[in-house]
Design brief:
heterodimer; A: alpha/beta; Rossmann fold; eight-stranded mixed beta sheet; four-stranded antiparallel beta sheet; 15 helices; B: alpha/beta; 12 strands; 29% helix; globular; ATP-binding (chain B)
């Protein structure tokens, strides 16, 4: 296997807040190979965006603080070398943001913004002289070439009437078109590595579908590598080769798309996938509890307070290492060990991990419900059956 | 089963001759003592312009919608953003006055009632909104938020109210010590539970759920959905669920109306809609669902190349409003406006390709 294009090892990021020091990213290992699309999935607040911001050196510092770990791009260590980081970012990375309305300036036309991207692309610093030059006298020839290049890219992203779009402001475009413009701008600098932070979340499914297709095409065409951040596992299936499942600033599980989505091993992955309403089935159990407080994260596995298979004295001790039951399929959970093969591991997952819909957010409440309790807990366990005999009237 | 409503006449308004014959009147959706009966409901918003703010056009947010919600069922309205589904919900809850059409709740037409006459109806229809952070007053404690409907309707003594609030919190599985907290101390799922408790305070019959879980993470969403289903069973509630999540409706809705630019494109019971979608728009929506598990792929129509986005509702396309994006469009689609046509038991669809409505499944 060749060296990975991007590699993060043992990344730690803290945030200084009024409540204390939040240990948000706690030892994340991640790599993206050449020509590969990797997705990070997880719920809001799990640290996916912070990871992306660290890679793009966009982490607000303070309050953020990188307290440990390495970030290597083509073997070059970047975290300890901000100028190199800036240069690599300018030369080889592109980023697509989530919300096209806030990431595009409302006071410039699409053409002006694209021209700026082309003018300053690849430069880490722009001197006053250069700035003045490009503001005062844009050279005609350059201008024309830039315009043509912009039109070509907009065209590739299937924007109707690209020439007209160049003279329009973002408000005049629909959500899908704006997102296309944003993708076009990320591609303008001819990056070899793209980070996409939930680029389709704000869009309707039909538009999302078109955009994923387009993005896929562009990636294949240019042979780009991409890190795709999303909370939507369906989208991850469409676009990713490999998937990292992230929980509370740690990687819970990583594997190929099919391994993660069809045969998940980590209790969190299983709970997460089960909770999604699917065409086939929908488990109403969800996952008990809430994301932990980052200022005082649980000892050991950060998922153990919510985990149905948590083992006393094991899961609350040390942070679980990544076990690798199948080549490339790693899981941070004490249910598994290094001796297991893929088949064994899957069996363990199926027998040991059982989410029960017993209590909702608060385990302590359901027991104090008095006379309603029995009927209710019966209800929940039979949630999937349409037998609805229990019309106890509740408190009507 | 024919209903004696005024549906046919105006629902097929601008449609050209031939499709009018068999319209929504023979609709099996419209039947037996429903809790909510919506007939040809329209809500237009004027677009003003010029020096004197004269009306220069209108947005037909809801344009001739008819359906029934039966007692104890979940009726889902699905559609993309801007299709008018939220306006429909608000008009039904009479937060907006409709432009025309009727909304019959429990046999009473509430579409033209004044505020005073509406007050008793307001107890029966309650709304749960998408984003609990903005729908709960940040300066009130949970107990005051949940008790507010009781105060507005002047029900009970102080002690009774407080008793009621406590039992409601239990009902939505929140601990009693939440009574004295403020919304910002709660997580998203907990806030949505408070919003649900508030909606239940007055013992409503119908809940309008406007994207109740789309602001929540999936592991939390699952629990809120479970709670809503449990409440529906226990309290015999009827739900009007407004959502864009088709996979969710498949799992919890009894019947579904697919909306596009203010009109229903297809109505059917949930199982039927997913098994055999008849309208090209529904096909596209279903084909665009991102699936999570491999096994889901079989339950989806084949991949359809989707084009374009929802057009500007103030200037909808001529003929069938969906034709510019439709993968099955024929020439007639740009000029003739289709009407809802029966395509099966409890199933109708708005598409010219269905012909004149004498479809296979006719009696």
């Amino acid at each position: 296997m060749s060296d990975p294009l991007l590699e993060i090892s043992d990344l730690h990021v803290d945030f200084n807040t009024y409540d204390g020091r939040s240990k948000v990213i706690n030892g994340v290992d991640l790599h993206v190979d050449e020509g590969e699309t990797v997705a990070i999935v997880g719920e809001s607040g799990c640290g996916k965006s912070v990871t992306a911001e660290t890679i793009m050196s966009m982490l607000p510092q303070p309050p953020g603080e990188i307290t440990g770990g390495e970030l290597r791009y083509r073997g070059e260590e970047l975290l300890g070398d901000p100028p190199a980081h800036k240069r690599v970012k300018a030369e080889s990375m592109g980023m697509i943001f989530q919300d096209p309305m806030t990431s595009l300036s409302p006071v410039f036309t699409v053409g002006e913004m694209m021209r700026d991207v082309l003018t300053y692309n690849g430069k880490t610093e722009v001197g006053w002289l250069e700035l003045g030059k490009s503001v005062l006298g844009r050279r005609g020839a350059d201008e024309k070439a830039m315009r043509e290049r912009s039109i070509e890219l907009l065209d590739r992203l299937q924007i109707p009437d690209p020439e007209g779009v160049l003279d329009r402001y973002p408000v005049e475009l629909s959500g899908g078109m704006r997102q296309r413009v944003l993708i076009a701008m990320a591609l303008l600098g001819e990056p070899e590595f793209l980070i996409a932070d939930e680029p389709t979340t704000a869009l309707d499914v039909t538009v999302q579908d078109q955009l994923i297709e387009l993005l896929r095409e562009q990636i294949d065409r240019e042979g780009l590598s991409m890190l795709y951040i999303t909370h939507n596992l369906g989208v991850a299936r469409r676009i990713a080769d490999r998937i990292y499942v992230m929980y509370a600033g740690e990687i819970a599980e990583v594997g190929t798309r099919d391994e993660i989505l069809d045969e998940p091993l980590h209790p969190y992955s299983r709970g997460l996938i089960d909770s999604i309403p699917k065409l086939t089935a929908f488990q109403r159990e969800g996952i008990d509890g809430l994301l932990p407080d980052y200022t005082e994260p649980p000892q050991g596995c950060r998922f153990h307070p919510r985990c149905p298979a948590a083992m006393d004295g094991v899961c609350d001790g040390e942070k679980p290492p990544l076990y690798e039951p199948a080549d490339g399929h790693q899981v941070a959970c004490y249910l598994y060990d290094d001796q297991m093969n893929a088949q064994d591991a899957l069996e363990v997952a199926q027998t040991e991990i059982e989410f029960e819909g017993g209590s909702l957010d608060h385990p302590e409440v359901s027991s104090s419900l008095g006379d309603e309790t029995a009927a209710e807990s019966a209800d929940r366990t039979e949630m999937n059956e349409p037998t609805s005999g229990q019309t106890d009237g509740g408190n009507r | 089963m024919r209903t004696q409503d005024t549906d046919t006449s105006s629902a097929s308004t601008a449609s050209s001759g031939e499709t009018v014959t068999n319209d929504t009147a023979s609709d099996p959706h419209l039947e037996e003592d429903p809790v909510l009966k919506v007939r040809d409901l329209k809500k237009y918003y004027p677009i003003t312009g010029g020096l004197f703010k004269t009306k220069v056009g209108e947005v037909k947010a809801v344009d001739g919608v008819s359906f029934d919600v039966r007692r104890g069922e979940t009726y889902a309205i699905v559609g993309e953003s801007g299709c008018g589904k939220t306006t429909l919900g608000k008009t039904i809850a009479r937060l907006h006055a409709p432009t025309s059409g009727t909304v019959e709740f429990d046999g009473t037409d509430i579409s033209s009632l004044g505020e005073r006459e509406l007050k008793p109806i307001r107890r029966e229809i309650q709304v749960v909104y998408q984003d609990p952070t903005s729908s709960l007053n940040p300066r009130k404690r949970i107990k005051d938020i949940v008790a507010e409907p009781l105060i507005v309707h002047d029900i009970g003594s102080k002690a009774e109210r407080s008793e009621r609030v406590k039992s409601l919190l239990k009902r939505v599985d929140l601990p009693v010590d939440f009574l004295y907290r403020y919304p910002n101390e709660l997580s998203g799922g907990q806030k949505q539970r408070v919003a649900i408790a508030r909606a239940l305070t007055l013992n409503p019959t119908l809940l309008v759920l406007d994207e109740p879980t789309s602001a929540l993470d999936v592991s939390v969403q699952a629990k809120v959905i479970a709670l809503l289903e449990e409440l529906q069973r226990d309290l015999n509630l009827s739900y009007l669920l407004i959502t864009h999540d088709l996979s969710l409706t498949k799992n919890i809705a009894d019947r579904i109306g697919v909306m596009y630019l203010g009109k229903f494109m297809e109505r059917a019971n949930a199982a039927e809609l997913f098994r055999s979608p008849q309208n090209p728009y529904t096909e596209q929506l279903l084909s665009a669902i991102p699936i999570v598990e491999q096994s889901e792929a079989e339950l989806k129509p084949e991949k359809i190349q989707i084009r374009g986005e929802t057009p500007d509702p103030s200037d909808p396309p001529s003929g069938c409003s969906f034709h510019p994006r439709c993968h099955r469009a024929i020439d007639a689609c740009s000029s003739d406006e289709p009407s809802l046509v029966d395509v099966g038991a409890d199933h109708d669809s708005r598409c010219l390709l269905h012909g004149d409505g004498d479809d296979s499944s006719d009696t």
